[in-house]
Write a structure and sequence with these properties.
Layout: H1 7-13, H2 20-32, E1 38-43, H3 50-63, E2 67-72, E3 74-75, H4 80-89, E4 103-104, H5 114-137, H6 148-164, H7 168-172, H8 181-190, H9 194-198
Parallel strand pairs: 1-2
Antiparallel strand pairs: 3-4
Length: 199
């Protein structure tokens, strides 16, 4: 989980914010050794604005994950946010006797709306998938012969993701995904046979 928030958000969530340089280094090492770097983000937090969403997008562009999963903030018992929710709404634990699956934070914050939060999610996904080909091109695998086979497997799977659009989100984003040149070049360099290319 990558943690990134403005002071207002982090204070309310009592979160420890990861250093951006540390996050960037960790993601770079992961991709360099042929491991798919995946980032998880939560949005719709207290104090969420267009500015904080842009901060998250800026972080995504810094760390260059190959996969990104985002969630709207839920409130659950046993957390500071849940206690705050109870104080603000005067509701008790019997709320869970109703037919609800969860409590979205934004539903209890008059400064937020469903349309606003959904637009934040669309922006995160749109920006991520628009920049994904560039993230793939930026991969710089460690040149070690003992890793060539695993590198080839990593690159072939990555290439098939782009060429066959196996991620449903790629179509939803309406972004035309082109196969990054680096994928095939890396394949021929690390393991010059047709097997990895066919997956």
């Amino acid at each position: 989980m990558v943690s990134k928030a403005g002071r207002k958000k982090s204070g309310r969530l009592s979160a420890r914010i990861s250093g951006q340089k540390i996050s960037k280094r960790a993601f770079a090492l992961t991709s360099q050794y042929g491991i798919l770097p995946r980032a998880y983000f939560i949005y719709g937090s207290p104090g969420e604005t267009q500015e904080t969403i842009q901060e998250t997008i800026d972080l995504i562009n810094e760390i260059k994950p190959m996969s990104m999963i985002s969630y709207i903030l839920d409130i659950f018992p046993g957390t500071a946010l849940y206690e705050d929710f109870q104080r603000r709404t005067k509701l008790g634990d019997d709320i869970w006797m109703e037919k609800i699956e969860d409590i979205m934070y934004f539903e209890s914050d008059q400064r937020m709306s469903k349309d606003m939060i959904l637009s934040f999610g669309r922006k995160l996904r749109s920006d991520f998938y628009s920049n994904l080909p560039a993230f793939a091109d930026a991969i710089n695998l460690v040149d070690r012969e003992d890793l060539y086979v695993s590198h080839a497997d990593f690159l072939s799977r990555l290439a098939l993701t782009f060429s066959h659009e196996t991620m449903p989100q790629l179509k939803q984003s309406r972004t035309r995904m082109e196969l990054p040149d680096g994928c095939l070049e890396g394949l021929y360099h690390t393991f010059p046979t047709i097997v990895p290319i066919l997956g």
